[in-house]
Amino acid sequence: MKIELPNHNTFLHVTDNSNECDASSIFVLTKLNAMYEQSARDHGCTHIISPKACLDLLGIRDAIKIIGITGTNGKTTTAAAIYSILLDLGKKVGLQGTRGCFINDHRIEEKSLTTPPILQTIHNLKLAVEAGCEYFVMEVSSHAIVQNRIDGIAFALKILTNVTQDHLDFHKTIDEYIAVKSRFFDDESLKLINKDESKIRFNRTNAMSYGIEHPATYKILAYSLKEGISAAVAKIEKVYEFESPLHGFFNLYNLLAAISAVDMLGVAPMESICEALEHFGGVEGRMEVVSQDPLVIVDFAHTPDGMEKVLDSMKERDLVVVFGAGGDRDRTKRPKMGAMAQRYAKKIVVTSDNPRSEDPQSIITEILAGMNHHESLHVEVDRHEAIEKALRMQAPNEVLLILGKGDETYQEIKGKKYPFDDRSVVRELIAQWAKQK
């Protein structure tokens, strides 16, 4: 990654790649590229700085308020909701996360890592500042915290969604995973913590909370999940109401976090924030309704907890569920995902997700270890055929949930990404059958 600069004391660009260095370069030293410091020097670079110094050099640190969101589930929707509310309130704002980078409602970068390398984030921040943005909302992954990919960033607000099992292929134990998430909240910066999340540890200085089950700074008093979400939230002694077209109890948390965050930033009165929220239509691939008749919903849920949240939000309906599990990731969650699907679904098709370097059938076998074999349980390794099978077995009163990939447009197999989109498959099959009638 290289950032071109106007002629600044003869230095023309900032880079984190030692191969791009020369005598006119500034090399940003990070945990990930520390082993290449000597290489940068060998290329003639004598100016080596930290990410914090880079942010200062580019005039970013005091020019924009950065909101960081971490948690196992809900980061993407919460970040997008905050971004949408701020835009609706007339603010200029940037957004960075799993879906890419957006500035003032324009996409400037396609999907990437949840939290990219620090110089990429600095580059995006620089573009946001140049576009006049007052706020920058970013998702913060546990990997990024461990690898210091947020080094030097001064957050105006840090938000916790929740902590459940995920990424144990990287963190090894749930205790280590919780410790990493907790590390993000150990300073005295302004914080917004999910009060119903008991596992996280945080510095209570400048911490506020939101919740549904426990007393909190922002507390849901009453809610309805019929035909979307409507709720009453109390802040101290005042009560405010909001509505949303989104579905699911878990989205009640995401929306509450977004409302609370914008209020903590002092952007507008709570009434205006709640009104702006109504215009947020959700995120692609997150409880996305692909077809109304038959009713087919696609969601990104790929952990036991994520699946539970989605399935529980539709527990009043008869569910047909298609899902798999990603390869080269935490294997312990696979049987748990199987058990979770069987707890809620009337019919199940277990299939392949992104098998990566693993054998898809082996992944499915590990999922099936957590399930009771029954005539309502089907296995189809080919994901396209699995979706077709589920559509054919779906009765008129049933809801088809296709889980795991959300708005991904590929399937990763043996190091190669093949074009594949759950939503496109559904639409094409339904359209094809409609022509045959």
Automatic annotation (TrEMBL):
<dbReference type="GO" id="GO:0071555">
    <property type="term" value="P:cell wall organization"/>
</dbReference>
<keyword id="KW-0133">Cell shape</keyword>
<feature type="binding site">
    <location>
        <position position="141"/>
    </location>
    <ligand>
        <name>UDP-N-acetyl-alpha-D-muramoyl-L-alanyl-D-glutamate</name>
    </ligand>
</feature>
<feature type="domain" description="Mur ligase C-terminal">
    <location>
        <begin position="285"/>
        <end position="406"/>
    </location>
</feature>
<keyword id="KW-0460">Magnesium</keyword>
<feature type="binding site">
    <location>
        <position position="147"/>
    </location>
    <ligand>
        <name>UDP-N-acetyl-alpha-D-muramoyl-L-alanyl-D-glutamate</name>
    </ligand>
</feature>
<dbReference type="GO" id="GO:0008360">
    <property type="term" value="P:regulation of cell shape"/>
</dbReference>
<keyword id="KW-0961">Cell wall biogenesis/degradation</keyword>
<dbReference type="GO" id="GO:0005524">
    <property type="term" value="F:ATP binding"/>
</dbReference>
<dbReference type="InterPro" id="IPR005761">
    <property type="entry name" value="UDP-N-AcMur-Glu-dNH2Pim_ligase"/>
</dbReference>
<feature type="domain" description="Mur ligase central">
    <location>
        <begin position="69"/>
        <end position="261"/>
    </location>
</feature>
<dbReference type="GO" id="GO:0009252">
    <property type="term" value="P:peptidoglycan biosynthetic process"/>
</dbReference>
<feature type="binding site">
    <location>
        <begin position="114"/>
        <end position="115"/>
    </location>
    <ligand>
        <name>UDP-N-acetyl-alpha-D-muramoyl-L-alanyl-D-glutamate</name>
    </ligand>
</feature>
<dbReference type="GO" id="GO:0005737">
    <property type="term" value="C:cytoplasm"/>
</dbReference>
<feature type="binding site">
    <location>
        <position position="329"/>
    </location>
    <ligand>
        <name>meso-2,6-diaminopimelate</name>
    </ligand>
</feature>
<feature type="modified residue" description="N6-carboxylysine">
    <location>
        <position position="181"/>
    </location>
</feature>
<feature type="binding site">
    <location>
        <begin position="71"/>
        <end position="77"/>
    </location>
    <ligand>
        <name>ATP</name>
    </ligand>
</feature>
<keyword id="KW-0067">ATP-binding</keyword>
<dbReference type="GO" id="GO:0000287">
    <property type="term" value="F:magnesium ion binding"/>
</dbReference>
<keyword id="KW-0547">Nucleotide-binding</keyword>
<protein>
    <recommendedName>
        <fullName>UDP-N-acetylmuramoyl-L-alanyl-D-glutamate--2,6-diaminopimelate ligase</fullName>
        <ecNumber>6.3.2.13</ecNumber>
    </recommendedName>
</protein>
<dbReference type="InterPro" id="IPR036615">
    <property type="entry name" value="Mur_ligase_C_dom_sf"/>
</dbReference>
<dbReference type="InterPro" id="IPR004101">
    <property type="entry name" value="Mur_ligase_C"/>
</dbReference>
<dbReference type="Pfam" id="PF08245">
    <property type="entry name" value="Mur_ligase_M"/>
</dbReference>
<keyword id="KW-0132">Cell division</keyword>
<feature type="binding site">
    <location>
        <position position="404"/>
    </location>
    <ligand>
        <name>meso-2,6-diaminopimelate</name>
    </ligand>
</feature>
<comment type="pathway">
    <text>Cell wall biogenesis; peptidoglycan biosynthesis.</text>
</comment>
<dbReference type="InterPro" id="IPR036565">
    <property type="entry name" value="Mur-like_cat_sf"/>
</dbReference>
<feature type="short sequence motif" description="Meso-diaminopimelate recognition motif">
    <location>
        <begin position="353"/>
        <end position="356"/>
    </location>
</feature>
<dbReference type="InterPro" id="IPR018109">
    <property type="entry name" value="Folylpolyglutamate_synth_CS"/>
</dbReference>
<dbReference type="InterPro" id="IPR013221">
    <property type="entry name" value="Mur_ligase_cen"/>
</dbReference>
<feature type="binding site">
    <location>
        <begin position="353"/>
        <end position="356"/>
    </location>
    <ligand>
        <name>meso-2,6-diaminopimelate</name>
    </ligand>
</feature>
<feature type="binding site">
    <location>
        <position position="149"/>
    </location>
    <ligand>
        <name>UDP-N-acetyl-alpha-D-muramoyl-L-alanyl-D-glutamate</name>
    </ligand>
</feature>
<dbReference type="GO" id="GO:0004326">
    <property type="term" value="F:tetrahydrofolylpolyglutamate synthase activity"/>
</dbReference>
<comment type="function">
    <text>Catalyzes the addition of meso-diaminopimelic acid to the nucleotide precursor UDP-N-acetylmuramoyl-L-alanyl-D-glutamate (UMAG) in the biosynthesis of bacterial cell-wall peptidoglycan.</text>
</comment>
<feature type="binding site">
    <location>
        <position position="18"/>
    </location>
    <ligand>
        <name>UDP-N-acetyl-alpha-D-muramoyl-L-alanyl-D-glutamate</name>
    </ligand>
</feature>
<feature type="binding site">
    <location>
        <position position="408"/>
    </location>
    <ligand>
        <name>meso-2,6-diaminopimelate</name>
    </ligand>
</feature>
<dbReference type="GO" id="GO:0008765">
    <property type="term" value="F:UDP-N-acetylmuramoylalanyl-D-glutamate-2,6-diaminopimelate ligase activity"/>
</dbReference>
<comment type="similarity">
    <text>Belongs to the MurCDEF family. MurE subfamily.</text>
</comment>
<keyword id="KW-0131">Cell cycle</keyword>
<dbReference type="GO" id="GO:0051301">
    <property type="term" value="P:cell division"/>
</dbReference>
<keyword id="KW-0436">Ligase</keyword>
